[in-house]
Design goal:
Blueprint (H helix, E strand, L loop, with lengths): L12 H21 L5 E5 L22 E5 L3 H23 L3 E2 H5 L3 H4 L2 H15 L8 E2 L5 E4 L1 E5 L2 E4 L8 E2 L7 E6 L3 E5 L2 H9 L2 H4 L2 E5 L6 H14 L3 E4 L4 H12 L8 H4 L5 E4 L4 H4 L8 E2 L2 H11 L2 H5 L2 H13 L1 E2 L12 H12 L5
Parallel strand pairs: 3-4, 10-11, 10-12, 12-13
Antiparallel strand pairs: 1-2, 5-8, 5-11, 6-7, 6-9, 14-15
Helix pairs in contact: 1-2, 2-5, 12-14
Family: Belongs to the TOP6A family.
Main location: nucleus
Cofactor: Mg(2+)
């Protein structure tokens, strides 16, 4: 029992998904009524592997095998129960043209779902089964990202006029698919890992001196932030740079923007931004910019474990070998530091010297 391909591009997507849900549940009930244990096949996707020869298809958006779910396995019974409960909620959302969050869904059956991650996996399973993105199910993430700079756009009936006050933060819209009428006068997009750096740029009036758009996912980026960035890159055709902490988690956030995440690998083509360049902070920046020793923190055992695991990812070998060299340098040096450490000599060093020199001097990889 597999997700069926879309029947007609002219049909509204809601109607197509409702038809798929109806056919899926009908087949399921037919199997059960005939005394058969239904077999559900889910395509498996990945955005990276650890094959040493890197001759893989991780970046092709193609499935890499199938996962079999059956009622014959006790571990699958609860998973299928959760999936069907969530599917019923999704069906109602589509029928009534309403939206809700993953958290809303969890609280509809907390005693059954037990944990939010169980709901998250069910939603991912449904997306794979129905061959769609999460927002197509009318399930939205609570927005966490911020944007400012030389851009104006409309989402639904709301106008986001960043241009009139380019250093003022605006929340990134949740309904990215409704964004239209984009007006851009920026030369590039700058993605910063943390809200503290975003606020530093805002306080220093960075966008007054630099025609850019600044985005922050405030840590690991949520889906709206990643989809919003993907939308801008596709429509504006301007360079995009990323500034993260010089530590394993900053690097992992960087790769999430560029290559996507394993959890959402089935939808990577709509979420990743292959065009993004790493602006910093590089391990080599600690010496180049004279970061004091007291600002350098030793890598923990967990940091080292994470770095060694990331070094095995196929895309570091195949697509960005320079990134791999910097990550190896971090492990060799045995230290990490935050972006703010670059401002140890002057509060506005980051905005007045470091970022402009990196961009204008093309010191990025």
């Amino acid at each position: 029992m597999e997700g069926k391909s879309m029947k007609s591009e002219s049909q509204p997507l809601n109607a197509i998904l409702l038809t798929k849900i109806k056919e899926f549940t009908r087949d399921l009930l037919l199997n059960l009524s005939n005394g058969h244990s239904p077999i559900i096949l889910l395509d498996r996707f990945r955005n990276h592997c650890i094959l040493p020869d890197s001759n893989c298809f991780c970046s092709s958006n193609l499935p890499c095998g199938k996962q079999v779910l059956t009622l014959c396995k006790e571990t699958h019974v609860h998973r299928l129960d959760v999936m069907l409960r969530v599917l019923l909620i999704v069906q109602k959302l589509l029928q009534e043209n309403k939206h809700c969050s993953k958290r809303d869904i969890y609280y509809m059956h907390p005693s059954v779902f037990l944990d939010q991650s169980v709901v998250d996996r069910a939603i991912n399973d449904i997306c794979v089964l129905m061959q769609c993105s999460r927002h197509n199910l009318n399930v939205v993430s609570a927005g966490n990202g911020l944007v400012m700079g030389w851009i104006r756009f409309v989402e639904g009936k709301k106008v986001f006029d960043c241009i009139s006050s380019p250093n003022t933060a605006h929340p990134i819209p949740v309904y990215v698919e409704e964004i239209k009428d984009i007006v851009n006068v920026a030369d590039y997009i700058l993605v910063v890992e943390k809200e503290s750096v975003f606020q530093r740029l805002a306080n220093d009036q960075f966008c007054n001196a630099n025609r850019c758009i600044v985005i922050s996912g405030r840590g690991y980026p949520d889906i709206p932030t990643r989809r919003f960035l993907r939308l801008l890159v596709e429509n504006l055709h301007i360079p995009v740079y990323c500034l993260v902490d010089c530590d394993p988690y900053g690097f992992d956030i960087l790769t999430t923007y560029k290559f996507g995440s394993m959890q959402m690998a089935y939808d990577t083509k709509h979420l990743r931004v292959p065009e993004i360049s790493w602006l910093g902070a590089f391990p080599s920046d600690s010496e180049k910019y004279f970061v004091p020793k007291q600002c350098l923190l030793p890598l923990t055992a967990e940091d080292k474990r994470k770095i060694k695991a990331m070094l095995l990812r196929c895309y570091l070998q195949r697509e960005v070998p320079q990134w791999r060299l910097e990550l190896e340098m971090m492990l060799e040096k045995g230290v990490k530091f935050e972006i703010e450490a670059l401002s140890v000599h002057a509060l506005s060093f980051l905005t007045e010297s470091y970022i402009p020199s990196k961009i204008h001097g093309q010191v990025n990889i």
